[in-house]
Amino acid sequence: MTVIEVAEAIKADVLVKGESCHKAVRHVVASDLMSDVLLVDEEDLLLLTSLASDQVLRTAQIVGAVGVILVNGKPMPSSMVNVANDLRMTLAICPLAKYDACVAVHAALNRA
Amino acid sequence: MSVVSQSPVARHVKTGAYFGVDNEPLVLLELIQRLKVRDVMTPKLVTVSRDAPMRAAQELMRKKKISGIPVEENGRFFGLVSIDDIIRALGGGYIDDPCSRHMTTKLVVLEDDMPLSFALRYFDRYSYGRFPVLNRDQRLVGIICQRDINRVLLVELTSELNRLESASGQNVMRDGSSNIYVLREFPICKYDFESAGKAANQIKQILQEKKFPPKDIRRVAVAAYELEINLCVHSDGGVLSWQVANGRSEIIARDAGPGIEDVEWACRDGTSTASEWIRSLGFGAGMGLVNVKRVSDEFEITSKKGSGTTVKSVIQIGNTPP
After folding, report:
1. B101: which of A42, A58, A63, B143 is 20 to 30 A away, CA to CA?
2. What is the ipTM of this complex?
3. Is the domain defined by A3-111 classed in CATH 3.30.720.120?
């Protein structure tokens, strides 16, 4: 299942389609602590976070994430879309709380 | 594989790594952040006491060819006698009065541990030719004028260029047959979260263009990113240097302060001095150095409280890309 398909399944709005938007999601990481995300060694991961900052996208790019879904419908700085475009990182926003988003993503990946 | 024989400095000028968007030399910006006022000031001062006549100050200024003399007693700073004060004293007929009566007391001073960039801003903002420098105990420790700044910057720039040239020479000579050589330096400013991560992103892109194995690229990118964030969060600003040659990536993060009191403690899981604000940005969990060590084949850190910190991360990334 690609990050775009995951986003559609949990009713997230896709704001930027990045270069890995058609890659299969192989792992999901949910965290607001970028230090923890940097410790993950898995490939092709999808990052769920409620932290709305440019550093989320830079961290995602460093660990080779296929995309970022911002949960809790958080208002985000306008720069985030620009940074996502620059880094060619898929960015979506979802109104669900982080826990509910994790459950919904898990269900969607199991259905696939 | 091609060996880059061009001077690294010339190459940086070409690629823009040494110049900002407005063609500002970034190496110079880094220097004025890294150097402190104490590194540039003249510490050996010619001073006069409060009771000394203005004529004595005039005589000293003539002999030493200087345009201002601090009035000081036992390290305590009282004021400054400038050429203007002397001219007024000669015109007003009070050249034999004590300095304390006519010295300039409304002064702008600098502190010795301020970055040099502060001093440059002060010279821009005020029309003074020199600033007295005080230490934390408000003792007079030196004086700084624009000539001091020019002299030190020239010396530092020359040594920086020599260092780059010598680093280039060593790596190109090591293996002339199979070598990808890249050298980049990125100045990192304190609390500049808007830019933090850009250096690591660039490093990752370069390695991807050279088609190194993705797992190795990720290790280098993680080390660079963690060190870049550390410079941004914990230091007064510094430089992230990166070079890759003969399948060896070397990242060096160095700053000029404030230094780490207990390096061993700082390298333990979960220990951090980061503020709540830094934590709210998703960092400061105390995993940065631990993570750099984890992804590195060689890891070194040297630091001293009150001076700078240098962290080196070496990662083997294969002799040739696949």
Report:
1. B143
2. 0.91
3. no
